[in-house]
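Kindly review both lines to help learners:
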Amino acid sequence: MVRTAGRPGRPARLSRELIVAAALQGDLASLTMRELAARLGVSHSALYRWVADRDELFDLISEVMVERILPTSEPSPADWRDWLARLAWAMHDEFLAVPGYAAHVAAPHRHNPHSFGRLRDQVITAFRAAGASPEMAAQSWYVFGLSVVQWLGAQQTGHDLGPVAPRFDLFLDTLLRGLPARTPVEHPR
């Protein structure tokens, strides 16, 4: 039998989109590759042809999450702070909507260099639009990124945050008023 169109063999039952959609249906903290394969209705060996391990799975998930959260517009000198606020609220909404994702991103691990690199570059662009030097824009990225991700991770893991739940709007307002970073005045020791 000769096929004249398409690829030979069975059509693919998996795709990047299907794998990520299935992974996002449950708690990522406890998700196993076998459980994910079962959700997809494939053998775990078939899944491993698409993703080698949990790290690669989280890379795929992070690519999708960064696509969801990055504003479509570029930050400008007139709106850099609003742009960062939109980004932070999108991170809040998307990261907390997926059980285990914010906690995973907040924990020490190798981040996806492509997706988080795009996020970093856009945030640095926002701080450059605010007038920060390249060095201070990069430092501001670390302050912004770590602060938002750690806040979200703490929210998701339910660490004891005290008797009053911290409000994201107050946290974000305070954070953005202090950015971009400036070279600090040297303090005597």
In short: Confidence is low (pLDDT under 50) at residues 1-7. The first helix runs from residue 16 to 23.
